[in-house]
């Protein structure tokens, strides 16, 4: 089947299920099964955009059950070369407050058992993840947030846990003591899979809660996460609508050539 073309993709996170006005929906087939939902296609400021809520349109998929490979491959099928991945996250540091945005530059993977590569053989392929997020997109995301008056952090490390459970107090203390800023359940392998397909990827972490034990707060609840995310949804959409037309047409970042020298 021939799909419409898009050069920019957006994954929606918890509480974020719509982005494009009057989109066309397409069921995209992939070698890795079905994506989380049909892909919604349309335009933002004259740029062709594909939107896909990673948890499904009705949030039926918990983090450990998301078919990340199908989601990223679906974007590739539409010709997407850049993906923006906003998501609800917890803070591990008191200075990273509720409602802040963090434009992450590093991740730490604490998941297990997830399908996290497209390259299962017979050709052995090792793709570098030293700097997993696109520097061009990160810079534009941060500058756009500042222009909009959103409190944003230009760098940060997100530790990705398996879910669906939240951290114990000991785990949270351990993560915080490492100096990591953000905790989340969906950034890995999503961002790395994009790199394996030479797609630029930018994470925008919306801080919805402090992880248990950070700043003496009470344990987080899912209801609180969704409440804060819903309060900040309009800020997320405003950022995306301003950021998307600012992305350059030509890519001169390392992401575009991530497969060079990666195969044996």
Structure in a nutshell:
With about 260 residues, the chain is an alpha/beta fold. It has 5 helices and 11 strands.
What order do the helices and strands come in, and which of them pair?
Layout: E1 8-12, E2 24-26, E3 39-44, E4 47-53, H1 68-77, E5 82-91, E6 101-102, E7 106-110, H2 135-147, E8 152-153, E9 157-161, H3 169-177, E10 182-184, H4 187-196, E11 200-210, H5 222-246
Helix pairs in contact: 1-4, 2-5
What does this structure look like?
With 264 residues, this protein is α/β, with parallel strands linked by helices. The chain has a single domain (8-257), classed as Nucleoside phosphorylase domain (Rossmann fold, 3-Layer(aba) Sandwich), CATH 3.40.50.1580. 25% of the residues lie in helices and 22% in strands. It has five helices and eleven strands; from the N terminus they run ββββαβββαββαβαβα. The chain has helices at residues 68-77, 135-147, 169-177, 187-196, 222-246, and strands spanning 8-12, 24-26, 39-44, 47-53, 82-91, 101-102, 106-110, 152-153, 157-161, 182-184, 200-210. A hairpin with a 2-residue loop joins strand 3 (39-44) and strand 4 (47-53). The two termini are 33 Å apart.
């Amino acid at each position: 089947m021939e799909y419409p073309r898009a050069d920019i993709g957006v994954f929606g996170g918890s509480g974020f299920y719509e982005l494009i006005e009057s989109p066309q929906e397409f069921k995209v087939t992939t070698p890795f099964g079905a994506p989380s939902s049909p892909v919604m296609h349309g335009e933002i400021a004259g740029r062709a955009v594909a939107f896909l809520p990673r948890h499904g349109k009705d949030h039926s998929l918990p983090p450990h059950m998301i078919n990340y490979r199908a989601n990223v491959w679906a974007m590739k099928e539409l010709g997407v070369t850049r993906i923006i991945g906003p998501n609800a996250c917890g803070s591990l540091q008191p200075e990273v407050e509720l409602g802040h945005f963090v434009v992450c530059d590093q991740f730490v993977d604490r998941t297990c058992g997830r399908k996290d590569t497209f390259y299962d053989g017979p050709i052995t392929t090792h793709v570098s993840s030293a700097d997993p997020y696109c520097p061009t997109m990160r810079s534009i995301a941060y500058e756009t947030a500042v222009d909009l008056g959103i409190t944003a952090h230009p760098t940060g490390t997100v530790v990705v846990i398996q879910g669906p459970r939240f951290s114990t107090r000991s785990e949270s203390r351990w993560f915080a003591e490492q100096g990591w800023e953000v905790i989340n359940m969906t950034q890995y392998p999503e961002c790395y899979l994009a790199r394996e397909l030479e797609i630029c990827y930018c994470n925008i972490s919306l801080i919805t809660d402090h992880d248990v034990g950070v700043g003496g707060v009470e344990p987080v609840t899912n209801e609180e996460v969704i409440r804060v995310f819903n309060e900040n949804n309009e800020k997320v959409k405003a950022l995306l609508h301003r950021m998307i037309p600012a992305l350059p047409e030509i890519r001169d970042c390392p992401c575009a050539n991530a497969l060079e020298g990666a195969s044996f």
